[in-house]
Amino acid sequence: MSEMHAFDDMDDFLAHAYALESEVAERYGEIADAMEVHNNPEVAALFRELAEQSAKHGREVLEYAHKPLPHVAPWGFRWGGQEAPETPPMAETHYLMTPYHALTMARRAEGQAQDFYARVAKLSDAEAIRDLAKEFAEEESEHVATLDRWLAKYPRPPSDWDFDPDPPSVPA
Ligand code: ZN
């Protein structure tokens, strides 16, 4: 996010935070759906919970703003970072396939969110924005830690994982 401005206006910061949290919540919901399709209810449940946390965070941001926020279009806070807003992420077909890929993409997104808030906390001239951004960065670091724990449980699958997306059938 090299083009990031310093966020000296609280509503501007909150509008961006809301856009970020909403987008993440939506993506996590999609991943949860995909994990259900691929028979992984445990990871699906994790993503449902993360989606709910992001949605809740978004609602808190709205409550914190005392008036309607300016609309911020999806702004390039994408999984992997570089794609234009309407372009499906390059790895979409992969990250929807295995827990490892889903968790890796989510870990990257949480790390980006944490960096974003940490940079606002450092760069903003407004103390109230710095304090709030610092709080948000701490929440994101908890999500990063959660995903690191889950990644330890779901290591990278064998290199041929993408040729056999269906779970092997168990002999009767
Ligand atoms: Zn988060």
Supply the helix-strand structural class.
Answer: mainly alpha
Instruction: Give the overall shape, derived from the CA principal axes.
Output: elongated
Query: Whole-number radius of gyration?
Result: 17 Å
**Which oligomeric state applies?**
single chain
The figure for the number of domains is: 1
Alpha-carbon distance between the termini? Answer: 53 Å
The CATH architecture category equals Up-down Bundle
How many helical elements? 5
CATH superfamily, called what?
A: Ferritin, core subunit, four-helix bundle
Beta-strand fraction estimate: under 5%
Tell me the CATH topology: Ferritin
Sheet having the most strands: none
The counted number of beta strands is 0
Query: Low-confidence parts, pLDDT < 50 over ≥5 residues?
Result: 76-88
- Considering DSSP H and I runs of 4 or more, what fraction of the residues is helical? 55-70%
Cofactors and ligands: zinc ion
CATH structural class: Mainly Alpha
Order of helices and strands: HHHHH
What does this structure look like?
This protein has 172 residues and is mostly helical. The chain has one domain: Ferritin, CATH 1.20.1260. It is 63% helix and 0% strand. It is built from 5 helices and no strands. Helix 1 packs antiparallel against helix 2. The longest helix has 28 residues, at 10-37. The chain is elongated. The termini are far apart. 28% of the residues are buried. Residues 54, 110, 113, 140, 143 line the site of zinc ion. Zinc ion is lined by residues 54, 110, 113, 140, 143.
